[in-house]
Specification:
It is found in: Cell membrane. With 650 residues, the chain is an alpha+beta fold. It contains 25 helices and 22 strands. Strand 18, helix 20 and strand 19 form a beta-alpha-beta unit. The two termini are 42 Å apart.
Length: 650
Amino acid sequence: MALMLYPGRLHQFTKEHMDAVAAIFCGLLLFLGWIALHLGFLGWALLLLPAAYIIGGYESAREGFTTLVKERELDVDLLMIVAALGAAGLGLWRKEYYLIIDGAVLILIFAISGALEGYAMQRTERSIRSLMSLTQDTARVVRQGREEIVLINQLQLGDEIIVKPGELIPTDAIILEGYSSLNQAAITGESLPVERKVGEEVFAGTLNGYGALKLKLHQPPESSLIQRVIRLVKQAQTEAPPSQEFIEQFERRYAQVIVVVGIFLAILPPFIWNWEWETTIYRALTFLVVASPCALMAAIMPTLLSGIANGAKQGILFKNGAQLERVGKVRAIAFDKTGTLTTGQVEVCQVIASSEYTQADVLKAAAALESRSEHPIGKAIVQAASDLEYKSAVEVQAIPGQGIVGLVKQQQVIVGNAEFVQQYVTNLSVKLQDAAHTLQQEGKTVVWVARGEEDKDIVSLSTSFNIVGLVALADKIRPEAAKAIAHLRKLGVEQIVMLTGDNQQTANSVAQAIGIDQVYAELLPEDKLRVIRHLQKEYETVAMVGDGINDAPALAQASVGIAMGKAGSDVALETADIVLMADKLEKIAVAMGLGKRAQVIVKQNIVIALSFIVLLLVGNFLGNVNLPLGVVGHEGSTVLVTLSGLRLLK
């Protein structure tokens, strides 16, 4: 009825939704059938329970028979169906109808497992859709002297593209005309916009700043950086890790062994031990029930789900149980810099005044001009001067890539980089030059502030400016970063590296401050992916911690991808396996601790499950275990390992 009222949502009702609905209805019918059987309504029970079999087992049966026909292999799906039907058949044959319920429970377990698996597989599609939102469908192209809008896939090499201020760059291209500041954080992770001029390359998905640009297409749109990122995410997310392939192979081999042994048990005993055929069939079907790997499967998932719930209470979102187990095996961790080890926000970290002025004078003069600017550096300076009283400048003019000029109380003031400001300074202090050089070596951005003549207009700048001082800015390191790194080392992480698109000096400064082993700087997304693959060859299980779109391929490729919840981009959040909801780096160590505990409990549960299976199988072979006892042992072992797994909730 809801779908009839909202037909626009029909397209959103996917196979994953159908699997979830099937599992819910299977459980409901099983519950109602159980009630009917215990109240003596046998007819209703025999109607409800088969319906639970059909609704809950259809998908497993279809997949099992498809694997059998196309790949000529048996898997656990088909084994569960055979075991369930065998239990139901025995129940009808011997009029022990509770056995039908046991088979329905097996069906329900697999229906729930299939629904959860389908839900997890939606991550890839959502990641790609988020990435696609960064790409333009059209571009403004100049052809035959006229501007026209064309589809991206219709662009041709050599086309001239117009990009206005505030627009996304539609595809990778070379600047023909214009000068602008581009926000490349989504692609390279740089915390500050970068200036781009004629002859330099710009990337699709980056945001144009104040200047109009004319670009020339120098490569096909499908070869753009953002398209390569999309392809890398697809590839990395669809590559199954070796452990997953091993589990799948184990399930199929296990199913084959059980089926083969079951067939032999159903045929050979009358000829070898002179068993009656009724006893033989009974023992063979009992074997299928007690050999069902439910306890073995329950040895893992309840533990991992408990760990996931525990992590959620502490602000750690695990997207699937496999990653909880894997994070406890991490031997190397790669961190993105901007927005991960740092806050991603530029702030004033130091103010140095010349001998004639104070630090307050420097901040007030700079803030008077920057209050008229939208540049991130300007905003940081204004924030630093928020407690000071100053009058905003007039006749403010920005010189792209160099600085800003204006009048403050009828006095010329300039704020900008060293090359720009020092053109108008006659006597420059050696002390300030040395201080600026030291700050730059530490990876900080240095802004110079100077005052000129009074009662001057802004048309012609005076050549007799006096340096007021300089302001150093940097992306703030998260206060908990150093402690988090030290804690990871105590947990046994062998190698901790930083991957960043920022410059080498800035990256080295951050790494030294918090204790990073190795730095890889000035990287594009594909470079980060390459480093992760290199680390995996040496350390096998590698985690990647990031927050930006440029981190998505590396997050997808890493054995464990960890994203920052608050600062993270949509693509990073969708691609990652673990999300730190409060952006607290110390939670990585908590996640690893949960993973290590999960490994111990899973191993204990596997030993318990296998012990029960072996005992039941031996008992069945010796004739000491009948079907009801086998069901009790089978279900009892499943409950036992499930309760054992719940220990991780504490």
